[in-house]
Amino acid sequence: MLVVMQWSGAVLAGGSSSRFGQDKALYIYKGKPLIAWVLDSMAGASERLVIANRPYPGLEVYPDLWRGGDTLSGLHAALAHAQQDWVAVAGCDQPFLSRDFWCFMLEHTRADIQAVVAVLNDLYEPLGALYHKSLEGEVLRRLETGNLKMQALLHDIPLMALDKRALEARFGSYLFLNANRPQDLP
Ligand SMILES: Nc1nc2c(ncn2[C@@H]2O[C@H](COP(=O)(O)OP(=O)(O)OP(=O)(O)O)[C@@H](O)[C@H]2O)c(=O)[nH]1
């Protein structure tokens, strides 16, 4: 019997796009908004959540529950709102993530870890990663104590670290590209 794993997708879009100069989620790149590229990469999810604090027409938006913690606030809300145990979390500015990439990441989930994440030289890629819902309490504790660094969280939890260069070789050299400015996009 084929067992198909259920997972949630969450796109963080609660930032201020200050370096981008306009709401980057809605920036049209190669014919569609950046956020649509990311949502499309998560087409295999049982639900796709947009985590933001303002409405996006046509999309169901889930708010941060703890404000002011940057991407850690977004991760917390993603884990809190998600229905499934494993949650694919990405920025709204990562148009090169793909369905095949997420399938590959999901193949590396295990019962004894809480994240699947790319790493290079001890530096993790916190967005474009899988997180287990059981992390919600730990993330909230870090928000409460002002310990907002995603790298520190990832250093402290049991996870599967996948070689970033090997992932880029397989899924494309721009895989983890996040567009801080329009000119970052190829
Ligand atoms: N839900 C949520 N998402 C956030 C928050 N802060 C940043 N993000 C998202 O996390 C991703 C990475 O953040 P950044 O690249 O710094 O984006 P940004 O904050 O919009 O950009 P800058 O204002 O230029 O720093 C983007 O998709 C943001 O929308 C937050 O407080 N809540």
Strand order, sheet with most strands: 5-4-1-6-8-7-9
Percent range for β-strand residues: 15-25%
Shape: globular
CATH superfamily: Spore Coat Polysaccharide Biosynthesis Protein SpsA, Chain A
SSE ordering: EEEHEEHEHEEHHEH
Descriptive report:
Pfam families: NTP_transf_3. It comes from Meiothermus ruber (strain ATCC 35948 / DSM 1279 / VKM B-1258 / 21) (Thermus ruber). Keywords: Cytoplasm, GTP-binding, Magnesium, Metal-binding, Molybdenum cofactor biosynthesis, Nucleotide-binding, Transferase. Residues 9-153 form the MobA-like NTP transferase domain. One of its GO terms (molecular function) is GTP binding. The protein is an alpha/beta fold. The protein has a single domain, classed as Spore Coat Polysaccharide Biosynthesis Protein SpsA, Chain A, CATH 3.90.550. The chain is 28% helix and 23% strand. It has a 7-stranded mixed beta sheet with strand order 5-4-1-6-8-7-9, sandwiched between helices. Strand 2 (28-29) and strand 3 form a beta hairpin. Helix 2 packs antiparallel against helix 4. The N and C termini lie far apart (43 Å). Bound molecules: guanosine-5'-triphosphate. Guanosine-5'-triphosphate is lined by residues 12-20, 51-52, 64, 70-71, 73-74, 77, 91-93, 178, 180. Guanosine-5'-triphosphate (GTP) binds next to helix 2.
